[in-house]
Design a protein that fits this description.
The complex is a heterotrimer of chains A (361), B (441) and C (572). Chain A is an alpha+beta fold. Chain A has nine helices and 20 strands. In chain B, the strands form three sheets. In chain B, strands 1, 2, 3, 4, 7, 13 and 14 form a seven-stranded mixed sheet that branches. In chain C, the strands form two sheets. Chain C has a two-stranded antiparallel sheet. The chains are: A alpha+beta (361), B alpha/beta (441), C mainly alpha (572).
């Protein structure tokens, strides 16, 4: 049974996609490839072009330039109804004049699937999303989470080669979001369906994705597994957007291959890097808040003043100010540490976890 | 399935779009008439029964609007027959070359005299045919008269009495052909000057002037007004249907045929002839006796079969021998002047006579007290003269009648002139009457 | 429906696709609709304007100028404006006390009172005038009672006063509904702020509450003004001639179709209506600020103290006054003889037999014309709404603007325009002008009621989120299927409700009808009422037809409200 349910997942390739709305460029020369059965996320702030990219893949928007390939076949000009897709919209887009059954059956009816099979597959799809017995209800009689599930069932029932999800959980409350997230993850793995997921929520992206593409202003910044992106951001934007790194202004004092030495708040630090940096160049020193060690005796490399502390029970986080006035977040501190606002502390940055990026004036 | 539905819809649409008459059976006749529903519906049913396969289409318009339509569609008319009371409308149409000559077969003319009360029943030149006779008179609501303790009127002059102030109603000649005939009858019966003075003063007594002639009997029947100036059949049919009304022919009245004529270039000439013939058959003539119609047939021999109390025009001697040519020649002049001096200035005219009556009562009072009323009486005489305006003398009227008829700009200028005259005269009458009242206080 | 079926589906799926350039199928539909609206709306209005300012010698202002130095026309203008102001003032007087009661207090039977007070909306003013004649006219029940019992001779429903009364009694519920809604929606914090600042009682009412509901009131009031100013049927029934509508009608029908004065009068009527509606729009713009954004209704107060009870008593009186026209019409429709008595002295069903069996064409024609008009109007409106929201065409707003323009055009003016334009359009194959065919009536009704249909359908279309269509496209539905299965069903309830309102308003349209009518066989109900109202044997049959009209309108409004779920917003 499980095997029968598995679909013929497609491989998606986006080739130098460009799309302008008026004079603003929504997508600029975007190339990506999504593997068969992969859960791929487009992540970025609003306006970064991720939704437009998704809609280009769906065929709802035609790109100005570039191609969309499904299993190597150019589908750029193919209308959406011929692409065999499942799509979940941010607002679910359930048809209010149809029952749950009719909503889910819609795509099957369009595909001229015989009636008895329609009934069976709709029932199965609804069972899969935990909505068995809700066939006769109208969308307005369902809760937000239930509507979400209907939308998912509707997208999956046609056994699409590609599932597209446009911020599907943004209208749900936090608890439900977490629950739906894991259900989606389970279903996706079960069905082995290629999935393109759009979100601005980094946590969602990290939890769900096989791979993530971070987009900014219509441009692909970096693509890779969640771990790669988090641990080895190639651009300051990724470091900042994913996990919220501390960006500290520093200057290269000694350039080198594989490692540079930078000066931060009067102290020198050796940091590994791939980037070509020259001596005297202004850089951002990117440090994750959990990669900063705080010592109460102010004996570390750097000295800072505690501005505020947040006690979260299992952990403690703090906002510090370096001597040159730069702000810095620290987390993962021992909750029993006796930090008080106004206190002067010492800091140690683990250089192997820090990164440097060129800083433009 | 879909395709077939669409085809059926298209056929339905096509049949819908075509007017009923165009899918003609044997044929149709389109009749333009000013007659009330009761009359044309009865005739339509009878005509279609008597002429199987023929249908009669009615275009109902006031006579004047009918003339406008025929004039605007000269040469490409969309109606076949013009059927109305007003004989001068037919004279007008004939002179403007809008009618077709037609003489009905001899056997249908049998028993129809040449004249009624001296007036030719058929057009001597054969352009239109009389099928019924009408006279003009006064109808009143008996309940109303009792309620207001009003005496029953007999003659037109009676209606000038102050006691009737606000209780009389008539229609306007510009939009009702029969009312125009009534007005012409008065103008011809009393002479131009006296006739106008009578009309203007009578209008001062009127409560309202209705849009169409039907409004008059309707208002009298409902008791909104007591007395109406009407064509006879309105009164007779109301009596016949049990309403509390009476009707009288005053001495100065005329008997004039109601007519039918074939429109020049009629699209259905045969239908038109059939219709005209039908009106003159015994069956068509006897329909006139029906209570809801109550008109006087032209076939004199039929009156032995008339309902009880039905007037016989061939035994009456009305005071006026109607001159239809004169009436037609000054049609525009009379109707426009009536509108400007009476219809549209009715409020001012009423105010003038109200003031005069008030002043008269004051003078009467003063006279009883033995006061000097000579100045007041002089002022009152002037007031009454001013409130009985005749804007144009008979001689001038005949001079300008043609111009008024032909030239819209000239007509518009005259209309403004008459309106100004009327406003001024009625305003002055109020002023004089008030002065008279002051003088005896 | 046919052209639409062919053209609409083309663009459905491209809803969110914003490729520069236009969709050919949309352009086709756009062109078609532009042609329809152009012929039905733009051409007639333009023709009236042309008739007013162009003659054989070319452009001229002489005709319009003549309007302003012809005392008769000036008097008509004065009377029309007077009737408008009078009707507005009286309607306000009738509407405001119950509006305050309903908007501010909560009590049992409130819904019943609302229904009762909105009943006058179902009787068109010119039908109401017939009924008023029987109750407040010269021989009316109340007039006679007043005279017999109190010795007072006063005729309320006569002449201009009658016109004012007929309109005020018909339209006051309109003001009532808008003001009630506005009062209920006034953000309580605005009043509370004023109370904290020290304003109380009448001062609070005067300085804070009334200004807040004023825009809503102005919208309702100006509508009353416009309708009473440019009406034709009511003055004709009440025998009032010196008003703009009747004067234009007389000039065109009895002087000459090409009479320039008729067009000049029409132009003045048009300008008057435009001016008033422009004013309404300006006043309406201040509106949103004052109302609750959430749409939450404020809790009403209980009836405490004598104030609200007085309001209740006044409201019931208003309710009775509002029923006077209905009472008169229904009684008259079954009366055989009713002459100067309180009630008819003889009863009969003859009048109903007459209009239902002997001369059923009035009712049948009305059903045919109104149904056709409703279907056409909805089809056109759905097309316009679709293009407005989804169309990939140049200037989609143009179509919407042209289609809603007739809202400011008096019926007389549109009727005159129709007469002027379509009398010269020969129908191919039949050799008769278009005005000789019955389709000219549905065409007129479509033109007159298109604004309402377009507004309602457009509102329904705005509710259809583009993603609903995209979801269908992604699910495998092609353009026509998307339109059929998603767009149409979603817009349909709104469109059907709009269609029913078009139906009922078309069923009682008079001003334009009376100008276009030629054959009695083609008369709809409204003209039938006018014909029978002039019957020398009394107005019984007119009243019977009027009763049928009232029943049609009441049923239609009820059904439309059930479907559309909104308060009646009827205007003829």
């Amino acid at each position: 049974m499980q095997m029968a349910e598995r679909v013929l997942a497609v491989e998606v390739e986006l080739d130098r996609l460009t799309k302008h709305f008026g004079i603003t460029a929504a997508v600029r020369g975007l190339s990506l490839s999504v593997g068969r059965g992969e859960f791929f996320t487009l992540l970025g702030p609003s306006g970064c072009g991720k939704t437009t990219t998704l809609r280009i893949v769906a065929g709802l928007v035609e790109p100005d330039e570039g191609r969309v390939l499904f299993d190597g076949k150019d589908v750029t000009r193919m209308p959406p109804w011929d692409r065999n897709l499942g799509m979940v919209f941010q607002n679910y887009a359930l048809w209010p004049h149809m029952t749950v059954f009719d909503n889910v059956a819609f795509g099957l009816v369009e595909r001229k699937v015989p009636g008895s099979e329609v009934r069976r597959r709709v029932r199965e799809a609804l069972e899969k999303v935990g909505l068995a017995g809700m066939e006769g209800r109208f969308p307005s009689q369902l809760s937000g989470g239930q509507q979400q599930r209907v939308a998912l069932a509707r997208a999956l029932v046609v056994r699409p080669g590609l599932l597209l999800l446009d911020e599907p959980f943004s209208n749900l409350d936090a608890k439900l979001r977490v629950q739906m997230r894991s259900e989606l993850s389970r279903l996706q793995r079960e069905l082995g369906i290629t999935t393109l997921y759009v979100t601005h929520d980094q946590e969602e992206a990290l939890v769900l994705s096989d791979r993530i593409a971070v987009l900014d202003s219509g441009r692909l910044v970096q693509a890779g597994s969640p771990r790669e992106l988090y641990e080895d951001p190639k651009e300051v934007f990724v470091a900042d957007f994913l996990g919220g790194a501390n960006l500290l202004p520093a200057v290269v004092v000694r350039a080198g291959t594989g490692e540079v030495e930078v000066e931060l708040s009067g102290r020198r630090l050796g940091v590994p890097t791939d980037a070509e940096l020259a001596t005297g160049q202004a850089v951002w020193l990117s440090v994750r808040p959990e990669h900063v060690e705080v010592t109460s005796d102010s004996s570390g490399e750097l000295r800072a003043t505690v501005q505020a502390t947040d006690y979260l029970g299992w952990t403690l986080q703090a906002e510090l100010v370096l001597e040159d006035g730069t702000c810095l977040q620290v987390r993962g501190l021992d909750p029993s540490a006796p930090l008080r606002p106004g206190q002067t502390v010492g800091l140690r940055i683990r250089p192997e976890r820090a990164r440097v990026f060129p800083r433009r004036a | 399935m879909m395709r077939r539905c669409q085809r059926v819809l298209l056929v339905l649409l096509a049949t819908w779009l075509v007017p009923a008459g165009a899918l003609a059976q044997a044929g149709q006749v389109v009749v333009l008439t000013s007659f009330p529903r009761e009359l044309f519906e009865t005739y339509k049913a009878a005509f279609e029964r008597a002429n199987p396969g023929w249908s009669m289409v009615v275009v109902s318009k006031p006579t004047t609007a009918g003339i406008t339509q025929l004039r605007e569609r000269a040469g490409r008319p969309d109606v076949d027959v013009f059927w109305a009371s007003a004989v001068d409308a037919f004279v007008y149409l004939k002179e403007n070359n809008l009618l077709e000559r037609y003489t009905p077969p001899a056997e249908l003319r049998r028993g129809i005299p040449d004249r009624v009360a001296g007036f030719p029943i058929n057009d001597p030149d054969g352009y239109f045919v009389g099928f019924a006779v009408s006279g003009y008179g006064i109808m009143w609501n008996t309940v109303y008269m009792e309620r207001r303790r009003l005496p029953e009127p007999r003659e037109w002059e009676d209606l000038l009495e102050p006691v009737y102030f606000g209780h009389i109603i008539m229609s306007t000649p510009a939009r009702s052909g029969t009312t125009h005939l009534t007005v012409e009858t008065l103008l011809q019966g009393y002479g131009w000057d006296r006739g106008w003075r009578l009309l203007v003063q009578m209008a001062g007594n009127m409560g309202a002037l209705t849009e169409r002639s039907f409004g008059v009997p309707e208002a009298v029947i409902a008791g909104q007004y007591g007395i109406g100036i009407v064509i006879d059949f309105f009164g007779l049919s109301a009596i016949a249907s049990g309403q509390p009304v009476r009707f009288v022919y005053p001495k100065v009245t005329s008997l004039v045929p109601a007519n039918v004529g074939i429109v020049r270039g009629a699209p259905n000439p045969e239908g038109a002839r059939r219709f005209v013939n039908f009106l003159l058959t015994d069956e068509g003539q006897k329909l006139l006796f029906r209570p809801e119609i109550a008109r006087l047939p032209v076939r004199a021999s039929l009156y032995v079969q008339a309902p009880k109390g039905f007037p016989n025009p061939f035994r009456m001697s009305p005071g006026v021998r109607f001159d239809a040519n004169l009436s037609a020649a000054r049609y525009q002049l009379v109707t426009r002047m009536f509108d400007q001096v009476i219809t549209f200035r009715h409020a001012e005219l009423r105010r003038a006579w109200e003031a005069i009556y008030a002043a008269e009562r004051a003078v009467e009072e003063a006279r009883r007290r033995g006061g000097d009323v000579s100045r007041a009486e002089r002022l009152l005489r002037q007031a009454r003269a001013s409130a009985r305006l005749v804007p144009v003398s008979e001689a001038t009227a005949m001079e300008i009648a043609r111009e008024v008829d032909r030239d819209p700009a000239y007509r518009a200028a005259k209309e403004r002139e008459w309106e100004a005259l009327a406003r001024q005269a009625y305003g002055r009458a109020v002023q004089l009457a008030n002065e008279a009242a002051q003088a005896v206080r | 429906m046919e052209p639409q079926a062919a053209a609409v589906p083309a663009g459905s799926a491209t809803a969110g696709r914003r490729r520069p350039g236009y969709e050919p199928a949309h352009l086709l539909l756009y062109g078609l609709l532009l042609a329809v609206v152009g012929v039905l709306v733009v051409l007639p209005i333009a023709s009236v304007l042309r008739g007013a300012v162009v003659d054989a010698t070319g452009f001229t202002v002489a005709h319009v100028a003549r309007f302003f130095y012809t005392p008769l026309y000036l008097e008509s203008l004065r009377n029309s404006v007077y009737a408008g102001v009078g009707a507005t003032a009286l309607a306000s007087l009738l509407a405001l006390p119950p509006a305050f009661l309903l908007g501010r207090y909560r009590f049992r039977g409130q819904g019943l009172l609302v229904t009762w007070l909105t009943v006058p909306l179902v009787i068109p003013p010119f039908v109401g005038a017939i009924g008023l004649n029987q109750t407040l006219g010269r021989a009316g029940v109340l007039t006679l009672l007043l005279e017999d019992r109190l010795g007072v001779q006063f005729v309320a429903a006569e002449g201009l006063r009658g016109v004012i009364l007929a309109h005020a009694l018909h339209y006051f519920p309109f003001i009532l509904l808008t003001v009630t809604a506005a009062l209920a929606n006034v953000d309580p914090s605005l009043e509370e702020a004023a109370q904290v600042a020290g304003a109380r009682g009448l001062r609070l009412l005067w300085r804070v509450t009334l200004p807040l509901v004023a825009p809503a009131y102005a919208a309702g009031a100006i509508l009353v003004f416009v309708r009473a100013t440019d009406d034709l049927g009511t003055p004709l029934i009440l025998n009032v001639k010196n008003m703009l509508g009747p004067q234009a009608y007389f000039r065109i029908t009895t002087i000459a179709r090409e009479d320039p004065d008729g067009y000049a009068i029409s132009l003045v009527m048009l300008l008057l209506a435009l001016g008033a509606l422009g004013l309404a729009t300006r006043l309406g713009q201040r509106r949103e600020v004052a109302t609750l954004q959430t749409g939450a209704q404020r809790a009403g107060q209980l009836l405490r103290g004598w104030g609200p009870w007085v309001l209740l008593a006044v409201s019931m009186l208003v309710g009775f006054a509002g029923l006077l026209p209905h009472l008169g019409v229904v009684l008259l429709s079954v009366s055989r003889v009713w002459s100067l008595t309180y009630l008819p002295t003889g009863y009969t069903l003859d009048h109903y037999e007459e209009i239902l069996f002997r001369a059923p064409q009035f009712v049948l024609n009305t059903l045919l014309y109104s149904t056709t008009a409703a279907v056409l109007a909805v089809a056109v409106a759905v097309g316009i709404a679709y293009l407005q929201h989804r169309g990939r065409v140049p200037a989609p707003g143009l179509l919407d603007f042209a289609a809603t323009a007739p809202i400011a055009v008096p019926g007389v003016v549109l009727g005159v325009g129709f007469l002027r334009v379509f009398d010269h359009w020969a129908v191919p194959g039949l050799g008769v002008p278009l005005t000789a065919l019955w389709v000219v009536f549905p065409m007129l009704y479509v033109a007159r009621r298109l604004p309402y249909a377009v507004r309602a359908t457009s509102a329904a279309m705005a509710q259809v989120h583009p993603t609903l269509e995209e979801a269908a496209a992604v699910s495998g539905a092609r353009r026509w299927r998307i339109f059929r299965r998603v767009v149409l069903p979603l817009v349909l309830t709104g469109a059907v409700a709009a269609g029913i309102l078009v139906f009922v308003t078309a069923a009682v349209e008079f001003s334009g009808t009376v100008l276009l009518i030629s054959r009695v066989e083609q008369s709809p109900l409204s003209y039938g009422i006018y014909l029978y109202a002039q019957s020398p044997r009394g107005r019984g049959a007119a009243a019977a037809l009027g009763t049928v009209a009232v029943v049609l309108v009441a049923l239609g409004t009820y059904v439309a409200n059930r479907i559309g779920g909104r308060r009646p917003t009827l205007t003829w």
